[in-house]
Each structure stands twice: as structure tokens, then as C-alpha cells.
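Box S1 | Example of a co-folding query
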Amino acid sequence: MTELLEGNSMEQNEKKELLSQTVEELEEWFLSAGEAKYRAKQLFPQLHKGLSPQQMSNLGKRVQEKLAASFSWHLPVVEQKLVSAIDGTVKYLFGLADGHCVESVVMKYEHGNTICISSQVGCRMGCKFCASTIGGRVRDLSAGELLGQVIAAQKDMGERISNIVMMGIGEPLDNYDNVIRFLRLVNCEEGLNIGYRHISLSTCGLIEGIRRLQEEDLPITLSISLHAPDDETRSAIMPINKKYGVSALLGACKEYFAHTGRKISFEYTLIAGKNDSVENARKLADVLNSHLRTRTEGMPIHVNLIPVNEVSETGFRRSGREAVAAFQRALESKGIRATVRRKLGSDINASCGQLRRAAMKEKQTPKQGENQCITDTAE
Ligand code: SAH
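Box S1 (continued) | Returned holo structure for S-adenosyl-L-homocysteine
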């Protein structure tokens, strides 16, 4: 009897997540469950609009019951929503099935709505200026949870989301398989149908991941969080640099461009007194030019300058306006195109990791039965 019960509970735990399934996998499942294959194409688009199988009356009770026996279904739940009075940016704190929380931000541009999604609960990369990494990584997000952020935000706003940036909490290439599955799901014609060219993925520079990505044939835009021109400066603010130094990283970028023909953009967070001198800018231009360009050819280089968002725990200060302008001029004088990122949602603290952290601090003592953000860090 005990064995039987244990067997059953094992089975319960092994339920697959419905939102992580591809159309082909659903087709196979329907056939194996003795149902018609066309059901998959009936189910998939409705799932990607945010409906649960229970809400899909056109499936019929028998199919709904079979689905419930084999799959779990959960869409991220809006725990908090902040809307910027300045520019309409919307920031969500989403609750996941196990009570953990992640953040997503929707920014409104003329060319459409862009969502910035999280790829992990927390992060283990340890960048010194970043709020998301303070408590470490709790777990990876599944493909369904990555997709769920887009679906839930779109459903809540009642507006189409046409662009995605993977620049929220977490390191996408540290959750490689789920991220790739998500990219294919979100691009699927029967679902959200978001073009790869409308998707950007940002990484702190996991070289193995960059090499794997170039083989996937996914024409997304890759962004590299560089933040420093040399190993000494970079290792002081990004521990990952001790494993993959600047030269090796830029070498991988060159290879990626040669292989895919897709240009890479570089992120550079400006921190007062750490990486924002004109000398740093000149070094940056030299290192980018020498690795990625020859005299006659090479990758068009674009650097996005981001004055650091101050996070109380880090003590880092943002560079002054003068320093930012001087840095930009120094890059441009050496042929590197540089833009300063416009800050959206400044009144709602829209930079990543801060809302989740605030919620974690508030909810130190979870009460049973409530949908809680689980605190994952000793403070
Ligand atoms: N792990 C990935 C993606 C998440 S972070 C990466 O490192 O790229 C997204 C971007 O925000 C990165 O460029 C990151 O360095 C930057 N960032 C993190 N904290 C920041 C802060 N406090 N101010 C400005 N940019 C920050």
C-alpha cells in the first residue's frame, strides 16, 4: 500500500508543464492518449493567450481530464504591478507556482511594446553592482515560466507585446536549454509568433554558451555586458571575468559574428570612479577595435552606455552627466558608435532585481496558504 501511494505521488511530481510543450510534443501526446492529433493545434494557441485547459470548453471534459492527469498548468500571477506616471512603463512582480517571484518590465516604444523578462530566480554571477545577484541563484525558470511572463503581461495589459529582451533577473546562458526551448516556443506561428529579430539576449559572457548559441541558427540579437575594457577593472566588478577574461570573451564574439553574420551589441554600465574615465573609454575603443575589426572589414560596433542604477546594498554611484558625455565622445572619436540608454520608469524603480528584493524583505515570515515570495537569503 505504502509503495503504491509513493508510486502515485512520484507520478504527480513528474507531471510535465503544459506551457513548456511544443506543438509537436503535444501532437505526440494526443496520439498516445488515444486522441486526435489536430487537438494540439486547438490547444496550443489558446494556451499562449493565457487560458487554462479548464477554460477551454471546446476541448471537452474527457480531454480536459486527460490533460490534467498528465500535465501541470500555471501562469505567473501578478503579485504587484507598478505603472510609471512618466512614460507608462509597467513593472510586474510575478508569483510562480512554488511561491518564488521574478520581475518583468514592459516598456512602451513607438515601435511597439518591449518586455524585459527574467531567466532565473536570482542569479549566481555575482556582479557587484547588480541587485538580482545579492541572494544568489535559487533556481532556473522553465521554458513555460519564461513564456508565461510574456503571456501574463500581454493578457494583463490587453496589448500585444512585440519585442523581448532577456535582461531581467538571472543569466540566460546559465539556463541554456530552457532559454532555447523558450525562444523556439515564443517564435512559433501558432503561438505568440514573435520574430527572432525582435528578441535580444544579454549575457555577462559565458563563452561556452555563446559558442553553443552560434550553432542554433536563431537570428536573435546578442548583447554582451562588458562594463570594463581590461581584466583588472572587469574582474573587480564582475567575478565571471576571472574565468573568461576580456580577450577570450571578445574572441568568442568575433567567432560568433563570423559564424552567424549577426552583429553583437555591448552594454557598458558607468560607475563613478570605477570604470568611467576617459582613459577607460579609450582603452575600450582600442580593445574592441583590435579584436573585432581589421582595417577593411569587421563587425559594426555599438556600445550602449548605462549610468548605473544605484542599489543601496552596493554603494556604487552613477557617473555624472559630464563624465558620461566625455566617455561617449572618447569612444566616438575612435570610431565606436555609442548611445546613452534612456532611463524608463525612473519613478517605479524599474531596474531589475529591486522590486523582488523589496518584496523579499517585506515578506520575511511567510504565512501558510498565502502565495509568498520565498526569502532565499540571510540578510
Ligand atoms: N545576466 C545577464 C542579463 C541580466 S542583467 C547579463 O549580465 O547581461 C541585464 C543588464 O543590466 C546587464 O548589462 C547588467 O550588467 C545590467 N545591470 C545590472 N545591474 C545594473 C545596475 N544596477 N545598473 C545598471 N545596469 C545594471
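The chain has two domains: 2-73, 77-360. The domain at 77-360 is CATH 3.20.20.70 (TIM Barrel).
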